[in-house]
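Quick one: structure tokens for this chain, please?
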Amino acid sequence: MKTNYTIKLLGVLLIAPVLFLYSCKKDLSKSGPSVPGMNTSTVARAANETVNVWETTSDQSKLLAQQTSINFAADAGTNATTITVDENTTYQTIDGFGYALTGGSAQLIDGLGANQSTFLNDIFSTAAGHVGSSFVRISIGASDLSSSDFTYDDMPSGQTDNNLNNFSISQEMTDLVPVLKKIIAINPSIKILATPWTAPVWMKSNTTGNGGFTGGSLNTAYYDAYARYFVKYIQAMAAQGITIYAITPQNEPLNANNNPAMTMQSNEEANFIKNNLGPQFSANGITTKIIAYDHNCDQPGYPEAVLGDASANPYVDGSAFHLYAGDISALTTVHNAYPAKNVYFTEQYIGGPGNFSGDFSWHMNNLLIGAPRNWSRVVLEWNLASDPNYNPHTSGGCSTCLGAVTISGNNYTRNTAYYTVAHVSEFVKAGAVRISSNTFSSSIQDVAFKNTDGTKVVVALNTATTSQTFKIKWGAESFTYTLPAGAAATFKWAGTQSSASGPPIGQTITLKGFNGDYVSGEDGTTAMTCTRTTASTWEQFLVVDAGNGKVALQSMGKYVSSENGTMPITCNRTTYSTWEEFTWGVNADGTITLQGNNGDFISSEDGTQAMTCNRTSASGWESFGVNQ
């Protein structure tokens, strides 16, 4: 991307106009800076593209019901609630959306008889009109939604099996394995996450009940045996034609009270991964991903501790979360601490009998919208199926877990989680990327995606208590739509965005002033200047999404502050708030401006003085070239 200063004006007039795009956005879940290129090709203008719409209302009068299509038109007028979609600013890649295929779910599905094929196609087929789930979670051994406790190497009390001679997945051959084979036949590219609720009882210490299945922790004497247990499991499933894409070492490692359950503190998980599980996978040529944590959002320090272990870190793909405690923003906290590692949302249940209106809104807002907006590649609801009495489950297991569907004999009915997942999964396919869209604090929540075929998807939820009319703006085109209170809509369209103006979120950039010198964070100790002839570490800035259409700039772990607009700007804040948030503007020549929350612009002050954020208008000295 080139900055055209006055001295270059004649040259600019002699060449064809160019539109400067960040044209090669990478998957920002990967680490490292990316320098945007210059795209001199003509950008296709949106041409009244048709937008297909599906809507669900809180009173269930509409359940993923397709509405009359609408069309983009040239943007005009204003709306305080405008979702600006920029497909040229991309974030993480999406692996998929779906459910947990618990042992109990598989048992019920296996009893559907003639309706089994219809049901499995409904959930897993990627054809139009189906949920198209592309990611599924299963348990390694029993979960609390199995009909009984078991592992793959149970021994009589007092006996051990360090060589795992007794290992067998035979208990899965009745229901789970046959159902998985049928799912794979429907969707061969589906990804499977497998998670244990407990190690075999003989490997545990200090158990608390249910014959040792509840509580306790992994005895250090059996770390190696347990790692080999995972290897045998993955190999046994592979022998059945089932590829395990990823595992987590322990479901809810801080929860000792489920049945089954086992605790595993962060230092224990790190030690197990670096000393046993990771090396065993490597030695056996196993490429299954290892994902840490798999528990609530209130303890982001747990995955950070595992990822912060220098020896465990190379073996770990990322971290997984539930939301029975904490806030969904914890996913971003961990992502920002370890941006090279992936983030997954793997479980949330709905308690029966449930309240459709409240459950639908909460799950759409926090999970299907909130988790992807906080870098998650996956969103999984808990149990796919239960019977009318919330069975099967273990003694002490979840007795109110409402399935995405209720199976009664050979019939099934759809429940809340069916629709939350379907609102996204039917339209956002594996391999899509999240793209830029702004959201609003008290009315319309949204998330946007771009599929590999170029189609765009926006999912919007009205969290207000009254109907809301909002605009979706895409390039130079827009349309308006009205959602009832508590309703959600999915919008999908094709075409190419007519313009690109978004900031390069997640990328590391340099800023060059009108004098040809670089903006510097000045070691974070003095006021910033625009006087450096070369760019080193303090002249590089990470562009951070600060929410609500704002960005923050970070250099060497410190944030740029406008200092209330009354003093020279600095780069010395450890966190960002109002005065560290800026509006990113793009000039006609491709240079950018940064406007503070006081409404004034950052200025390089002729390159001779400390920089400020007090100019009421922007000209040459308030404009900066990016990555020059």
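Confidence is low (pLDDT under 50) at residues 1-45.
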